[in-house]
Amino acid sequence: TDIVVLISGSGSNLQALIDTQAETNTRIVAVISNKPEAYGLIRAAQAGIPAVILEHGQYESREAFDQALMQEIDSYNPALVVLAGFMRILTPAFTDHYHGRMLNIHPSLLPKFKGLHTHRRALEAGEQEHGVTVHFVTSELDGGAPVIQARIPVLEDDSEESLQKRVLVQEHIIYPVAVGWFANGRLTLQDGRACLDSTL
Ligand code: GRF
């Protein structure tokens, strides 16, 4: 199953997906970054995967950028688009186009803490548990159907950084699981809900 991965930064989730392509039955056919300095571009190049830079600043509107991004993605004809630390809000035209075939990973136990600075906000709220969610992408920011979550306890002496590190370990485990489900035809979006076929 061909997938395209979108990144903006370090790309540690991208690395986890690169390393699990054989197990998940996937092939990453392109990595696209909106930031030229994203370290994930180097990870892609090292794995022999085409790495594309599409700078959002070069486009006159969010709509124009999303159109160009869509064209670039579709030129690879992927079955699935995977957002892995892609830090751009997407237009409804974009999210509708990839309805049921685009996943995101968000570092909180959604529906809690949509948006940015999730670890800090979880600490400030005195949460005893925190974690990460893989979800289908819809036009509502971090609001699409959840697919899989990993939860971890918040420790007494946790800082934003220590919490983020432990959550990231979980991200690298659950994202390949979700992508593998999709690639193997088990995971679909039906009536706004994630369905996992357990007979396959
Ligand atoms: C991760 O925490 C992910 O959940 C969030 O952005 C971060 C990306 O990290 N959406 P990386 O680029 O995969 O290392």
Automatic annotation (TrEMBL):
SUPFAM superfamilies named in the record: Formyltransferase (SSF53328)
Reactions performed catalytically: N(1)-(5-phospho-beta-D-ribosyl)glycinamide + (6R)-10-formyltetrahydrofolate = N(2)-formyl-N(1)-(5-phospho-beta-D-ribosyl)glycinamide + (6S)-5,6,7,8-tetrahydrofolate + H(+)
Biological pathway: Purine metabolism; IMP biosynthesis via de novo pathway; N(2)-formyl-N(1)-(5-phospho-D-ribosyl)glycinamide from N(1)-(5-phospho-D-ribosyl)glycinamide (10-formyl THF route): step 1/1
EC number: 2.1.2.2
Record site: Raises pKa of active site His: D142
Pfam family of the protein (one): Formyl_trans_N
Binding site for N(1)-(5-phospho-beta-D-ribosyl)glycinamide: G11, S12, N13
Residues the entry annotates as binding (6R)-10-formyltetrahydrofolate: R62, M87, R88, I89, L90, N104
Task performed by this protein: Catalyzes the transfer of a formyl group from 10-formyltetrahydrofolate to 5-phospho-ribosyl-glycinamide (GAR), producing 5-phospho-ribosyl-N-formylglycinamide (FGAR) and tetrahydrofolate.
Family of this protein: Belongs to the GART family.
The protein's name in its UniProt record: Phosphoribosylglycinamide formyltransferase
Organism listed in the record: Parendozoicomonas haliclonae
